[in-house]
Design brief:
Blueprint: E1 3-7, E2 10-13, E3 18-25, E4 34-39, E5 46-51, E6 59-61, E7 69-74, E8 79-84, E9 93-99, E10 116-117, E11 121-126
Parallel strand pairs: 2-11
Antiparallel strand pairs: 1-3, 3-8, 4-5, 4-9, 5-6, 7-8, 9-10, 9-11
Amino acid sequence: QVQLVESGGGLVQAGGSLRLSCAASGRIFSRYAMGWFRQAPGKEREFVAGISWSGGSRTYYGDSVKGRFTISRDNAKNTVYLQMNSLKPEDTAVYHCAAPAIAYRLGSPDEDEYEYWGQGTQVTVSS
């Protein structure tokens, strides 16, 4: 059974940084793309960043976070990270990591491509 557990959220002032982690278990982590999404109150879920399976070496970002956020993975730790810099109040949301059911994919900003979701971690950016 695939499980995803996020951590690292919290309260930070505008301009600050946070690093989110998502620990995965239940299958061979390196074979699967991973993604980060976020959802703010009253808004639809938004794609933040994606990374291909280990052999693909590709990363993707939503337009609102390009140049500020960086996604990475550590296959030895079965963990994907989201480094968030220059945070803005509009980045406030619950951040979820997600994983597809099919291996060896390059990743996608389409949430329908993802089968497994973590419970989320709250990020609050104060002005």
